[in-house]
Every structure is written in C-alpha cells, then in structure tokens.
Amino acid sequence: MQNNKKFIIATVIFLTIAMSTSIILIPTTTAHTPQWTIKSYAYLVAAPNPVGVGQTVAIVMWIDSPLVGATVSNDIRRHDYTLTITQPSGQVDTKHWDVVSDTTSIQYYQYVPVEVGNYTLKFDYPAQNYTWGNAITGYANDTYQAASKTITLYVQQEQIPAAIDSYPLPGEYWTRPIEGQNTYWYTLSSNWLGTPYILGANPAYGPPGAVQPDGSAPNSAHIMWSKPIQYGGLVGGNQTTIPGEMYYTGLSYNSRYNNPLIMQGTLFYQEPFGNLGGQGGLFGAGNGDYVAVDLRTGQELWRVNTTATSISLVPSFGYLYTFESPNEHGVLPNGMLIASASVSGQGTTWRGYDPRTGVLLPLNITNVPGGTNLAGPSGELLKYSLTNLGTSSSPNWYLAEWNSSNVLGKVSGTDVGTWYTGYANASLTSCYDWNVSVSLQGTGWSIGSAALSAIPLIKFNDKLVAVQGTFGGHPGDYTAVTTTNPANITVISMKPESRGNVMWTKSFEQAEGNNTRTMAAWDPDSGVFVFAEKESMTHTAYSLADGSLAWGPVSTPVEDFTNDWNFLALGQDIVAYDKLYFHGYAGILYCFDTKNGDLLWTYGNGGPGNSSLSGFVTPYGRYPIFVSTIADGKVYLTTTEHSPNSPLYKDSLLRCVNATDGTELWTIMDYGNAMYGGVSPVADGYLTTLNTYDAQIYCYGKGPSALTVTAPDVAAAFGSPVVIRGTIIDIATGTKQNEQAARFPNGVACVSDASMSSWMEYVYMQKPRPTNATGVPVTLSVLDANGNFRQIGTATSDASGMFTFSWKPDIEGDYTVFANFAGSESYYPSYAESSFVVNSPEPTVSPYPQVNLPPTEMYFAASTAAIIIVMVIIGLLILRKK
C-alpha cells in the first residue's frame, strides 16, 4: 500500500509538470462567437501491470490539461469521471467522482483484483461546459468534448515482487552520510538540535536532564575518542593552595559544554574563554572559538571566532526543515546552525552558519518574537504567546502561533528560493499561522511555569497549560521561601477545530503543612501534570482532562539513611516513557508510574550493581546522582553538586541504567559538568559528555575492530596439530591519539563488555591496568581440500588482543582458515582469513639396511635360527625340572 502511494505521488508530480507545460500552450483570447468546442484526450494507466491476484494496483486517470484558471483557491474543476472495471467473470465494479478535487484534473484510485484473468478498465469523461463566467476571459460557456480510454489489466496467480522498503540495518561499522535507500536506518540515526527539539537540552540552571526521542544510544562504556576542551585535571607541583589541586572546572556557574549540538554526524560546541564558560552559561557566554568535530572520530573539521562580527553570534540550536512543494521535497541541505542575538534596533536577530563549513551565511532575520518554543512536525520552530490586548480589569487575551517556516525559506512562489540568504522581518503578521481569542480572567497568565521553563507545557494540536501566579521556589533552591499563595491553572484546547477554547480553569492551593509546591513535570500522554512538595518530599498529580486529583501525594521511601537529602532536590524530575524519574543529593533514582503514581523501582540503594554508596568520600553517604540524558530506553546519570571543592570527589561515575526496570547496564569514572548533572548529547548511537576530572570531552559508543589470523607458513604433517593464532584490536580513532599510540604501539586490545569500564579507564583515564580483563570470542572455521566448510572451535583473546587455537587436521591437502568476531555491545564485527597445507603421510622406512642373500645362504640362516629356538626351548624345560 505504501509503495503504491509513493508511486501515485510521483506520478501526480510528473503529470503536474507536464500539464503545467500544456497550459502554456493553450492560447488565451478575448470573447469569441461562436463558442469553442475544445477536443479532450483521455488517459488511463494501471500499474503494476501485470500484477498478482490480491495485490494492490494504482489506477490513475486524467484529461489532457487542467481547466483553465483552476487553482487551489477556487472551484474550477473537471466533473464526472467514471471508472468501470469488468472482471474476467463479468462482474462490473464502477467508481464515480462528481468532482475531481485535484487542480490538475488527475484522479487516482487503488484497486485489489480478486480473481485471475484479464480485466477491462474503462475511463469515461462526459462533455463539460465551462461555467465559470469570465474567470478566464474568452472561455465562458465553451465546451470540452467527451473522451474515454479503455485498457486491459492482466492479473496472474504468481505474485510480483514487493518493492524494497529499505535495505537491512547495518551489521558493521557505519558513518554518515547514510545512503538514501537505507530508509530504516532512521531508527538508529538521530540529531541533537538543542532546545526545543530536545527538551531540557540546555540546562544551565533549572530542570535537569534531556530526553532524546530518536535513534540509538550506547550499551557499553566503550570510548571512541577523547578531546580536551581546556587545561584540566591535576595542576601538579607545590605552587597551589591545596596539594593536588585541579584546574577550575567551571562548576557551578561558569560551566563548560553547556549547549552542544549534533547534526549529520558532526558535534558542535563552544570552547571556554578564561573563567567564562561556553555558550549558555548562567552568567553569559564565553568568547571561545566555536568548534565542529566529527562525532565518530573527534577529528576537528572547522573552528570560528564568534566575536569576529559586531555581536557575539554563538549558535543556539540546529535547524533542519522539511520543505514540501509540488516540485521540491526533502530536508533542506545543509540545514543551519541558528545564532540568536539581541541587536540594537533589530530586536532578537537570527543569523545562520553553514554546519559543513562554519561560514556565516548572509541571512538576517530580525525582530524574532518571544514566546514559548515548541518543535513543529516538519522541523519548524513554533513560538506561542499569550497577549492581553485589554486592561487588567477588562482583559482581552489572544493566543498566537508564530512559525519559523513562514520566514526561513518562505518565497513568493511554491519552490525553494533564497533559503540561506536575505533579510526578513519576523514580526510581520504573515509570519504567524493563527491568532485566536482566549477567555482568561485577570493578568499574569503565562504558558507553563518558571520551574518548567525548559519544558513547554504544550502538546502540538492538542492542549496547552497556562499558569497564573506562582507557588514559590524554583528547582534546586533549598532556600525557597514558603508561600501560601494559590495559583490558577487553565488548560486550553490546541486542536484545530476548537483552538483557543478553555477546557477548564482551577485554583490550586499550596500543599498542606506550609509545603513549598512546584509544578515539577507533566505527561500529556498519561494525561497528568505533577506537583513536587518540598518539605514533605512528595509528588501529587492532577488530571489534564479536568484538573481533578489523579494520584498522590506519594512519598519517597523514608527508610533509607540518605532520604532527607531529597530536600535539596526540589524539582529534580523528568518524564519519559510514561514514567517520572526523581533524583538528587540522596543518590537514589526513583521511578514512578505517571498513570497511577506507583513506585516502580529505585536505583542506588541496593546491592552490587545497584549502589551509589560513597562511604567517607562524600558527606552525603552516597554519590549524588542526577539525570543527564534519557535515550533509547536508557537513563544516563552523573554526579555533581552545587559547589564542589578541588580536588573533586574520587570514583564518581557516569551510570547507564535500564529505563524500564532500573538494571545497571554500565558505569565508568566521570564527574558531571554542571551543578545538576549537565548535558550529554546522544546522536547516531554515540553519547558525548564533558568529564570535569580532566576537562576532556569523551565520546562513548560502539566502535570498529580489526581481526587478524595466521596459520603455519610451512606444510604441516598429517596427524600433527597446527597452531592458529591472531589478534583482535580496537581501532577506534581514540586508540591512535598521542598518549594511547605511545602506550599501546601494537594496538589496544578488544575486551569483553564485562571488562570494558575498567579497561577504558586504564586506556584513557590513567587508571591501573586491570588484572582480570578478559578478551572476546573468535570463531574459527576451515574450508578443507574436499570443499567442506566447518567450524572447528572458538578461541578467546587475552588482554593483549592475541588468541591461539590448536587443531589436528583430519585430511591432507589445502585449507583456508576463517576467523570471525561476531561483535558485541562495544565493537562491530570483524573478519579475517588465512591458509595452510597438510602433507600426505610418507611410507614407513626401516632404520636398518636390508641385505639380499642367495637362496642357499637364506636356507642356512633359517635353519640356524630354528636350531637356536630349539635350544632355548630345551633349556627352559631343564630349568623347570629343577
């Protein structure tokens, strides 16, 4: 069905172009007498033809040209198409269209034949008068003649091959660009375009954690590469205030690596400058270079000085917009990195960088309005604003949707125009999709709440949550003043048929017992919004349908000795997969079901593999853990705190746990880059994060491996074993960095997933070499001289990457030996082959020379031997008698 639709769309586009050309050939003229009679030509195509019984056929019919003057904004159309299908058995199916809605006069239909044989298809178009007055001068009351076309559809029992939807998902190491026929690879690949495309992607201060809705994410701690962002780690020497002091990490308020972006397999970020952090820091952006590196290799592609212009132009988000017109389809290359800056006289201004080159494009979008940002369905950026055009006593509220696609790429025609260049005023009325009145009382209404500033409380074409007033406090503020003020919440319909209608309004009081209440999260799919009550450390959910209590208050378990540290973690909540994840200084990740409030599981307060215990290392008893990123069914956690000392706590970890059941999947040493966890962008299956232990960006993900195999170079004797040996080596780009190349001149060994964390810490983080690292299994097979292929065994490599295997060939002749590594969560597969030969066995040769004697001498020798044997027997008998 999908393939036929694609065929139809392509056909319609082709015919549209052809017909637009034919329109040019029809002369326009002034009124004429007598009226014209215009000859019509009918066309009918069925495809595929022949086709298998039960398979879908696309039937397309049209008259040679559209009616003159037909546009999408009027009703000038062809009328009364009839399609008659006569089956081989004689049964007749008829389909009639009173009006052909397409301006080109094309009508299509999908048909499924149910019997084998020849079908007759007949398309009839009756005569039609041009009844639209003088809409096109000179054609009023002219007549288009009738026309018809008959074809045969051949239906056979044998099915014709289905069209290929996609080539298979990759089983080997892959890079971008992704060849366009690999359609299903979209399930593995992704981009990280920043806010609002990735909610919570720029958490300089506020709600933690970001959710990547697309693609895959790493299942092991394998490191692809590391790259310094500044001098980091230990300073060295005695000229520091504290022995062993580290370089300043930027924590808490000048954090680095704040708003990294990933597009088309390229990572973009700003380097820090002096004490200032990178773009997006709480106290302003730094002035360091903006850098692009290859996501898989860490190779620097370009860097630019963002202060070279009169204003600091640091990219804020990536922009990939799908453009659809009658003639053009697809995401516009190369997309853009949009820098947003305040310019005197121009308001908020957008400028664009080419992500392939770093060139600042001659694009200038001025007066971009404020509002709550939301990602649109085609990659456009939508802004929603609530505006009171009345007074406080007589309010007149309007809700509007601003659409970036009305500005970027918007041209007078239907095709792509000056997409990358030009000036535009983004405040014009034409830049808005719609503006509707909303019945709100009083002033002070805003979309969402301060606590959820990074999470727009809007679901596209569904609903919007507006808040009037405040509950007091903000995420992470343990000094928040308790307030008894209520807040009003209104849910507004965003559905096209009822947009702007108030669904309900309700006043919500503070929680009982002088609790500081914050709107902590919402889940439009489960139909709830959630309050966090600070002092009681509880969560309460209300229905988005009517504001009624959905569940709660629900407490976090109080039996744990670190539970009270949750008091410092107000608003540390994030929703994904219909679950509410709560985390913080207690060092425990709590997972609640957003539908009913049930506590599903906890992580950090269990035994081995489920513990964040810190002993004497931290004052909390556990390592504080904060959600950094949620992606591909996994939650990535890191440790930070508000004001860390130098040196940092030892043995802090980046943790990956299963988002469904809390199972720990892997950990590795890491300290987060922001006070509440920071950000770890995930795209194309790779996670990048800034480790403030050494101020290096690390890229985690599945990497390539290289396998070698050798066999004896000289012929082996039949019946003797041969020794097959080889190596399996990690060939990620990071293994060739200066330090790693010097320490591992023969390459870095591939190791098992179970050994990966300690092995990577040894290879990249200068930790002791693990004594229990295990390698990976290598399957060995042979093709013998008789043409038989068989598996002969499996060898496991060691911590040097070498494997050996002894095998006794069972026939003589030439052998090809194959070594295969099937891959793991850390490495893609690799393969190698070699050969050896086994000689035939030689005849046995006596070590004594053979003497040929004449016959007489042979008889004498034989008789002598017989006499000797008799004498021996007689001697034995004499001895026995004694």
Topology of this structure?
Layout: H1 2-25, E1 37-38, E2 42-47, E3 51-52, E4 57-63, E5 79-86, E6 92-99, E7 107-111, E8 117-125, E9 128-129, E10 143-144, E11 147-156, E12 210-212, E13 223-228, E14 261-263, E15 266-270, E16 290-294, E17 300-304, E18 315-319, E19 322-324, E20 329-331, E21 336-343, E22 347-353, E23 363-366, E24 372-375, E25 381-388, E26 397-403, E27 422-425, E28 432-438, E29 445-447, E30 458-459, E31 463-468, E32 487-493, E33 502-508, E34 517-523, E35 528-533, E36 538-543, E37 549-555, E38 573-576, E39 579-582, E40 589-593, E41 599-603, E42 626-631, E43 634-638, E44 653-658, E45 664-669, E46 682-683, E47 686-691, E48 696-700, E49 705-710, E50 716-717, E51 722-730, H2 738-743, E52 748-749, H3 756-764, E53 777-783, E54 789-796, E55 802-807, E56 813-821, E57 830-839, H4 855-881
Any descriptors?
4 helices; 35% strand; five-stranded mixed beta sheet; Immunoglobulin-like; mainly beta; 882 residues
Describe this structure in words.
With 882 residues, the chain is mainly β. Among the domains are: 155 residues, Immunoglobulin-like (Sandwich); 133 residues, no CATH class; 135 residues, Sandwich (Immunoglobulin-like). It has four helices and 57 strands. It has a five-stranded mixed sheet with strand order 3-11-8-5-6, with no helix packed on it. A five-stranded mixed sheet has the order 12-42-43-44-45.
Strand order of the largest sheet: 3-11-8-5-6
Class based on secondary structure composition and strand pairing: mainly beta
Quantity of strands, as a count = 57
Strand content: 35-45%
The low-confidence runs, each spanning 5 or more residues with pLDDT under 50, are: 6-29, 280-285, 412-417, 474-482, 853-874, 876-882
CATH class of one domain: Mainly Beta
CATH superfamily of one domain: Macroglobulin (MG2) domain
The span between the termini is 109 Å
What's the overall geometry? globular
Instruction: Provide mean pLDDT, rounded.
Output: 87
Rg from alpha-carbon coordinates: 38 Å
The total of helices stands at 4
Helix content: under 10%
